[in-house]
Design a protein that fits this description.
With 125 residues, the protein is mainly alpha-helical. A two-stranded antiparallel ribbon has the order 1-2.
């Protein structure tokens, strides 16, 4: 059965496919899926958007975290305005955390992007 499914996917022998994709996937997953490879096994919808590719490259080769974040967020907005597939629903994720927790990068398209810069403040109010 696995061989049959792989054949159907690789040869794009389908009219409709139900799958999942989330804009909060990590950068590497997004890069491998959507970067200039419409026939890639990961890009089963054969999506090809030059602006998305440009932003992925700019993010990949960014020399600082700020530029990377800016370009990757712009890529996510392109994916939102020119979706590679029909999304049946979107999750809304409320984000709650204590005010003493600092350095959280909670974005519109990411639940919590990274805890790398998170820290707990000792300040009392």
């Amino acid at each position: 059965m696995k061989d049959l499914v792989n054949k159907i996917l690789n040869e794009r022998q389908f009219e409709l496919m139900l799958s999942n994709y989330s804009c909060d996937y990590d950068f590497l997953t997004s890069y491998l899926t959507w970067h200039e490879r419409p026939n890639s096994p990961l890009n089963f919808s054969s999506y090809n958007n030059p602006e998305a590719v440009k932003l992925l490259d700019e993010a990949r080769f960014a020399s600082d975290e700020s530029t990377f974040t800016e370009r990757y967020q712009a890529f996510q907005k392109v994916m939102h305005s020119d979706p590679p597939m029909l999304y049946l629903f979107w999750y809304n994720y409320p984000i709650y955390y204590n005010e003493k927790l600092k350095g959280i990068n909670a974005e519109v398209f990411n639940r919590i992007n990274s805890l790398r810069n998170a820290w707990i403040s000792n300040e009392t109010h």
